[in-house]
Amino acid sequence: PLLILACVITTNVEGKNIYAFYDLGAAVLSLIIQAQSLGYYSRQMALFDKQKAKGFFKLEKNFEPYIIIAMGRIGDYKNVSKQVIDRELDPRPRKTDLVKELY
């Protein structure tokens, strides 16, 4: 398993990097497509403490953590606890259902 911290570089030699998010999206897409072609799976996560990540990795001022990508091969469920399996198999609410609840 591998965890990748994907960052945007907010400034460059010309000043503000207005294409930072586009560049990161293209890079992540390319990485994931290549990984899948080699038999790896990935999960992208955006809900993490970005300031802690920035401090932990001692990132430069113009590097902003944006997502974490977990990557690896499908594992063997024989060694996974029942609690983890149950959580993974539990039905999750659909976005359309959440929107209906707002009205």
UniProtKB/TrEMBL annotation:
Record's protein name: Nitroreductase
Transmembrane regions: 25-42
InterPro entries reported in the protein's UniProt record: Nitroreductase-like
Gene3D superfamilies per record: NADH Oxidase
SUPFAM superfamilies documented for this protein: FMN-dependent nitroreductase-like
Lineage of the organism: Bacteria, Candidatus Roizmaniibacteriota
GO molecular function: oxidoreductase activity
Domain of life: Bacteria
Organism of provenance: Candidatus Roizmanbacteria bacterium CG03_land_8_20_14_0_80_35_26
UniProtKB keywords: Membrane, Transmembrane, Transmembrane helix
